[in-house]
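Sequence only, no structure available. Ideas?
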Amino acid sequence: MNKTKKKSFGQLYSYLFDASRTINQLRKAKKNKLISMQFIERIMLAVTEVNGCEICSYGHTKIALEQGMSEEEIQLLLSGETSSVPKDQLHAIMFAQHYADTEGKPSEAAWEKLVHEYGLERSYGILGATRMIMFGNTYLVPVGNIKDRLTGKENVDSSLINDLIKAISIIVLLPTAVIHTLITKEPLISFNHLAQIQ
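Reply:
I predicted one. Tokens follow.
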């Protein structure tokens, strides 16, 4: 598992806002059988590996095993290796990793390739799953830091006050993000145009 990347309060809110905007697309893709639970878990594990969330790693490993994924495939995904991913899902997993790596600002070219590969509705489902785990990772890393402190393991890269504030901030951030989602006119996805050069 990679070392945990620090996230700001602004990123925490941004990821929650983005996740709340695409949760319905994820539900629709699941309902229409465009994205399976194993497919979703592969996305969750791949993004968790990029973001380094131990709680999410544990939780999604359990869910993936329950969905019939092998321990070997799970461990490969948690080490950043995609060789065991079914070919028809590989492009989505690579997009999800790119999304996490660019902190929620993928290149427009990466999005266009995803839509070309899977169609718009399925791509929105993939985006929804990616955004859900991005928020989950960002929110649960501070919770994990607090848990570590309670069990005697301290993370020198984190602050107890900062972690506590982030952990309880969901009380204010969630209703704010839901209201923001209802009134926003922003496009569903925005891009990192600097990434176009790569």
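The longest helix spans residues 120-150.
Hope that gets you unstuck.
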